[in-house]
Design a protein that fits this description.
The structure holds four protein chains of four kinds. In chain A, 31% of the residues lie in helices and 24% in strands. By secondary structure, chain A is an alpha/beta fold. In chain A, helix 3 packs across helix 4 and helix 4 packs across helix 5. Chain A is globular and about 65 Å long. The two termini of chain A are 33 Å apart. By secondary structure, chain C is an all-alpha fold. The radius of gyration of chain C is 24 Å and the shape is elongated. In chain D, a hairpin with a 2-residue loop joins strand 1 and strand 2. The two termini of chain D are 33 Å apart. In chain D, the strands form two sheets. Chain D has an eight-stranded mixed beta sheet, sandwiched between helices. Chain D has a four-stranded antiparallel beta sheet with strand order 2-1-4-5. The chains are: A alpha/beta, B mainly alpha, C mainly alpha, D alpha/beta. Chains in contact: A-B, A-C, A-D, B-C, B-D. The interface between A and D is large, with 44 and 41 residues.
Chain lengths: 334, 298, 298, 319
């Protein structure tokens, strides 16, 4: 039995809206070892952000509703905590970095105070001591301490994201959730921020859940990968498992959709069609109508988990029917 | 990202005919209970205004003095009682509806056409023209709206026409600002650039793309402004600068009844309630329209 | 900005007032005046000079604190205004403080408990509040609290008790609209990403609202407070009339009735000047609550 | 050289800002052959989108010349320019804001046909709209839907159909896929490529995504703060980047593979594009910068064949 920082079991979350019920998460299982990084990959509407917010219990309620499932964070059953206890967990045990650095900082509060706030809450320090500590953290993320007194609008996008990282790390959390932390940034700035995050992860021995739509970013930062589609994890495994021994047709489709920078002649093989309407998910496999390998059973029955090793599993009927099955082609070469 | 409200999914419907977007707005408006109450109320007032001659006789009931029946409390013959000259208050309120709605709508039309044009020109062309127009409007805005109206009526003299001109002019800067802001926000959209890219001229762009897309806030604002114009009309009449007695108008009815409130409070109750209900109904509709026209605000 | 706008305002109001029909000279001299006397006085007052010359003269006098003499009493306009202004100031400032004190907490609570009973009732009351004309509300308050309960005087200005009813009357409408703005900007703000950031670092729910949300939500609220002050000044004209409050508003109404143009002109100017100064204060206040604006100034 | 369809010479576009002139595009020159794709890459604020708009005269250039089929279009009257718009089109980045929300799919696609009086007969025009929808892979049943009822990919297809509704030969594609999910992005890229083959279109492909540009373009121009710093055939540029900025940019792309490569992490602040001094604009962040870079502005020099670079030190660094 390994020591897990995070265990999510059979998590179902839905949103009850005026237009109907959106099944956002349909049975998510995630286990993450201490100090490891998991990449959560998927497209718009796959349920990545909802998963992340549910770990901090920040899914807006209403319209959000946890139908069933459990989340154990650092041994604490999240679902059973009071709001007051959650406040003590947020920022201390787990913290989160949001996607858009332009809007994630409070425009009317000085950045120094925004960092110091978390410190004074969780470490019960005086204002001066919190500010002094905030300055250290700010310098740790590569921003001169004399910018403590400035407001967010005086910072560039990349700098803002550094401030946000500083806030998240100010109380040395055991788990960091990063929701597309570099998507809004330019490539060269993205490289700087990713470099910083890798460095800090080592330094703090944190576990991390990295949400991204970019398999390139995941390859650079993560140990494990989970591919999400329509509120489910369709394939999960180590980086090698998922990148080299791809099992799920959707994962294959994602790889084949990315232009390969090292091979300009390579043809793109897009996934046809669109993601199913989340108000009205099909009764069988949600990927069924876009899948080149679809069988009759896929239309009617939900696939179950099929494991290939301790770490690598997929939810696809192909392997229950023919255990030796292997996907046609994966364009990307190693 | 994964919250459902931010993503639009294709509705799997077979569309064979173009649906009117105003129909959608109407459907959403119908869902708001408060907006429906407002609509019913305003409909009642419109009916009263329209069918006033069938409800009461203008000369006899609303104007005809009858000293014997003065200051009578509400009864079956005089639903809302009679005033100091023995005139039927209900009849006067019914005819007052005509004036209030008429002045409200006409003065807002004046403000909308003049202010709207100024705002649209300022917003679309920008630069120096915008600057010049906005500076002039700054001056108008520096005078509190109702005071500007009072000043204009005071100078021109009290009459229904001057009242409409005064209330209309004093609302010009407000409309100019709203239209300008709305045009500005639409002008920056890429579909305006896209229209230019396919060779559309300025007037096509303004008429076909800018105006239809900037209508929503303007419609809402105009509805709310009819409400405040009605309020302004009765305010001016109350201080003797609007509709002059004996012509029945809610504001001047209140002014006339003021002296009798100690013993006959009903005399000021019903004209005041008429104002509150009309203004309230328009405000309810305005709020409902705002939500219906901009579903993302919900 | 203040000075050019005020110059524009004075010119505009001067121009509007000059449209008043009737001859000032014959008005001052009364009915029995001879033709010669009238011509003489016209010449004295420079009434036959071009408008712009008259304006120049007026401005020149104004700079030296002279706003002319009243046509009806012959007293100095400036003197009269200086004497009355503190009363209007007392009334409007009390009203705006009342509004802010009541509306901001209600707006904040309504937003944090959206669709709760408190929110629903609060919003209905707010809507009714902006739909009530202040002169009518004033009359109703007089009927209830002065004539029936006898708690407060029904008019005049004697002591603090006489301030209660007029101040409340004046405050109702602005309380309602500041509440609505606070609520909607609060709703907007609590959906922002930085609120999630604050929650994610473990800030308590209360502090999220008071420290992170309120500061941002106040920015639009302050704008509305500035605008409401203008509406409040306009409302003062009516409220002062209803409560016989000896302020500038009542002075203005009386002067209009007496066709005392220099006095009317003086009143409008002092109202506009107060409004402009309030807006200036609001602009400065902005810089304090919104650091992004401060950056634009320096 | 008669195959050149568009040539831009010393193009400049300055914007007024409170602090002075913002040099969005500063002395950019290039040419495109008919049927080819020129990729323009760079990070936000490098002037790539402005370049595209200036070429179509959606923004008026501050200085420079734009020749389309040998005609200097900056000198054309408004009427003549409108005529030319039948051939020169644009596809926008944001499929949400580039379609008028009050128009249906068919109204959006037929608007250019009506405005340019191409087909007067209503029935024929309807046929043409259906034909265009087929061409871009939009299901016919969507003809009366509104853009907000559709997903980003379909909306982008509408934008493409609209751009093709005229006698289009040349299209500026302004980040046409960056707002889309990966799987949809691939669909649209393939569509644009097929259309190019089928209709002989010429593209300027503006993007910040280097992998897309490599996949899509024949030639690539790299822009940095209004300047073109390097230009070469795509294959050459990606295998042999010479400018230090291009090198950093290429190395910074996260690759979806497991073999790790060394990254160049840039340091230093980005120079302000407002009234920039006549020096190398990348010098602040360049690890090879020397005195000369902070003294003089580098000019484009030929490295080899079609490969050009604007760097004072490229010869030393190559050697």
């Amino acid at each position: 039995m390994k020591d897990h920082i995070l265990e999510i079991k059979d998590l179902h979350i839905q949103f009850n809206t005026d237009e109907g019920v959106v099944q956002a998460l349909n049975g998510i299982d995630i286990t993450l070892e201490r100090g490891k990084t998991l990449g959560l990959v998927g497209e718009t509407g796959a349920g990545k952000t909802t998963t992340a917010l549910s770990i901090l219990r920040l899914v807006p309620r209403p319209p959000g509703e946890v139908v069933r499932g459990s989340i154990i964070l650092d041994g604490i059953p999240i679902m059973e905590q009071s709001e007051y206890e959650m406040e003590k967990i947020r920022g201390k045990t787990v913290s989160m970095i949001f996607q858009d650095p332009m809007t994630a900082l409070n425009p009317v509060i000085k950045v120094g105070e925004q960092i110091a706030e978390a410190i004074s809450i969780h470490q019960k320090l005086s204002k001066e001591k919190s500010l002094a500590k905030a300055r250290e953290v700010l310098e740790l993320v590569g921003i001169p301490g004399n910018r403590m007194q400035e407001y967010p609008h005086q910072f560039s996008g990349g700098m803002k994201q550094r401030v946000i990282i500083a806030i998240a790390l100010s109380c040395s959390p055991k788990l960091l959730i990063a929701d597309e932390p570099t998507t809004a940034l330019d490539v060269t700035i993205q490289a700087q921020v990713l470099e910083l995050m890798k460095e800090l992860k080592q330094k703090f021995h944190m576990a991390m859940v990295m949400i991204s739509h970019d398999l390139g970013v995941v390859a650079e930062v993560c140990d494990d990968v989970a591919i999400m589609y329509a509120g489910k994890i369709v394939e999960q495994g180590s980086l090698e498992d998922v990148f080299l021994r791809t099992k799920h047709p959707y994962t294959e489709g994602l790889f084949n959709s990315i232009p390969n920078i090292d091979d300009r002649k390579a043809e793109l093989i897009p996934i046809r069609g669109l993601m199913s309407d989340p108000y009205n998910l099909p009764s069988g496999c949600p990927f069924f109508d876009r899948c080149d390998y679809a069988m009759d059973i896929c239309r009617t029955e939900k696939p179950v988990k099929h494991s290939f090793s301790d770490t690598h599993f997929t939810e696809c009927h192909l392997y229950t029917a023919q255990p030796e099955f292997s996907l046609k082609s994966k364009k990307t070469k190693e | 990202m994964s919250t459902p409200t931010t993503t639009t999914y294709e509705k799997h419907t077979l569309n064979t005919k173009k649906k009117s977007q105003w129909l959608d707005v109407w459907k959403r408006l119908k869902k708001s209970r408060t907006a429906v109450i407002g609509l019913i109320l305003i409909l009642v007032f419109l009916m009263l205004a329209l069918f006033a001659p069938f409800i009461a006789d203008y000369e006899k009931d609303a104007l005809g003095m009858n000293v014997k029946e003065r200051l009578q409390s509400p009864s079956l013959t005089h639903w809302f009682g009679t005033d100091e000259f023995g005139r039927d208050i209900f009849a006067r309120i019914v005819y007052g509806t005509r004036i209030s709605l008429f002045v409200g709508i006409i003065s807002v039309s004046i403000a909308l056409s003049l202010g709207g044009t100024l705002g649209a020109i300022a917003g679309y062309y920008g630069g120096r023209i915008d600057n010049a127009i906005m500076r002039v409007l700054d001056v108008l805005l520096a005078i509190p709206t109702i005071l500007l109206a009072i000043t204009i009526v005071a100078a021109l003299g009290a009459s229904i026409l001057n009242l409409m001109i005064a209330v209309g002019i004093s609302n010009i800067p407000g409309f100019a600002r709203v239209v300008r802001a709305s045009v500005l926000s639409v002008k920056d959209q890429e579909y305006i650039e896209s229209a230019r890219a396919i060779g559309a001229r300025d007037h096509t762009i303004i008429l076909k793309h800018v105006l239809p897309n900037s209508m929503a806030p303007i419609v809402v604002f105009a509805t709310l402004k009819v409400a405040s114009a009605i309020m302004a009309t009765s305010s001016l009449s109350f201080i003797g600068l609007g509709i002059q007695p004996p012509t029945p108008e809610w504001g001047n009815m209140l002014a006339g009844g003021r002296a009798y409130i100690r013993d006959h409070m009903y005399i000021v109750l019903s004209p005041g309630l008429a104002i509150v209900l009309t203004v309230l109904s328009l405000n309810l509709i305005g709020d409902g329209l705002r939500d219906a026209l901009d579903p993302k605000l919900k | 900005m203040l000075i050019p706008v005020m110059l524009g305002v004075i010119f505009l109001v001067f121009f509007i007032i000059s449209l008043t029909p009737g001859d000032a000279a014959s008005m001052i001299l009364g009915d029995g005046a001879t033709e010669e006397r009238i011509i003489e006085l016209r010449d004295d007052m420079g009434l036959d000079d071009p408008l712009i010359v008259q304006y120049g003269r007026y401005m020149w006098d104004l700079l030296r604190g002279n706003m002319g003499d009243s046509y009806s009493t012959g007293r100095s306009v400036a003197g009269e205004i200086v004497q009355r202004f503190p009363n209007t100031f007392k009334l409007t400032v009390t009203a705006i403080f009342l509004s802010v004190l009541i509306s901001i907490p209600i707006g904040v609570i309504s937003a944090t408990k959206q669709y709760s009973l408190f929110d629903n009732i609060g919003m209905i009351l707010a809507l009714v509040g902006i739909s009530m004309p202040s002169f009518w509300t004033g009359l109703i308050l007089i009927i209830i609290f002065a004539l029936n309960l006898g708690w407060f005087p029904s008019g005049g200005m004697k002591g603090i008790m006489s301030l209660v009813l007029p101040a409340f009357t004046l405050a109702i409408a602005s309380t309602a609209s500041i509440t609505r703005t606070t609520r909607s900007s609060m709703l907007e703000v609590i959906r922002q990403d930085y609120i999630n950031t604050a929650k994610a670092k473990g800030v308590s729910r209360r502090k999220v609202i008071t420290r992170h949300a309120l500061g941002n939500a106040l920015i639009p609220a302050v704008t509305v407070i500035g605008l409401e002050f203008g509406i409040l000044l306009g409302g003062a004209v009516l409220t002062e009339t209803v409560f016989s409050w000896p302020g500038i508003g009542r002075l203005m109404v009386e002067s209009i009735q007496r066709k005392d143009t220099p006095m009317v002109l003086g009143c409008v100017i002092i109202f506009s000047l107060s409004f402009s100064i309030v807006n200036l204060i609001i602009d400065i206040l902005y810089a304090y609550i919104d650091p992004r604006i401060k950056a634009n100034y320096t | 050289m008669s195959k050149i369809i568009l040539e831009v010479k010393n193009l400049k576009k300055y914007f007024d800002s409170p602090k002075g002139k913002l040099h969005a595009v500063d002395d950019v020159s290039f040419a495109i052959e008919k049927g080819k794709t020129l990729g323009v890459v760079g990070e936000s604020g490098c002037g790539k989108s402005t370049t595209g708009r200036v070429i179509l005269r959606l923004l008026e250039a501050t200085d420079g010349e734009i020749f389309y089929k040998g005609v200097n279009i900056r000198k054309l009257s408004a009427a003549k320019m409108r005529e030319l718009r039948r051939e020169m089109q644009i596809i926008f980045q944001d499929p949400f804001s580039s379609l008028d929300p009050r128009n249906t799919v068919s109204e959006i696609i037929e608007e250019p046909i009506i405005l340019n009086k191409l087909i007067k007969n209503k029935k024929q025009r309807f046929e043409r709209v259906l034909e265009l929808m087929d061409l871009v892979g939009l299901s016919r049943r969507l003809i009366n839907t509104y853009p907000h009822e559709l997903d980003g990919g379909r909306r982008q297809r509408i934008g493409i159909a609209r751009a093709l509704a005229l006698n289009t030969e040349f299209i500026v594609c302004d980040e046409p896929v960056s707002a889309l999910d990966v799987s949809i992005q691939a669909q649209i890229l393939n569509l644009l490529k097929n259309l190019q083959h089928k209709l002989g279109l010429t593209y300027i492909f503006i993007t910040h995504d280097l992998s897309v540009v490599n996949h899509f373009s024949d030639d690539v121009a790299v822009m940095y703060l209004g300047k073109m710093v390097e230009k070469a055939p795509a294959e050459e540029l990606f295998s042999h980047p010479v400018h230090p900025y291009t090198q950093a940019l290429l190395s910074a792309i996260p690759r979806p593979t497991l073999d790790k490569h060394e990254k160049i992490i840039l340091k230093g602040e980005i120079t302000s594009p407002i009234e920039p001094e006549p020096i190398c604009r990348f010098a602040n962040r360049c690890r090879y910068a020397e005195d000369i870079c902070r003294r003089e502005e580098p000019q484009l020099e030929t490295v080899e064949g079609e490969h050009e670079v604007a760097c004072h030190r490229w010869r030393e660094l190559e050697g």
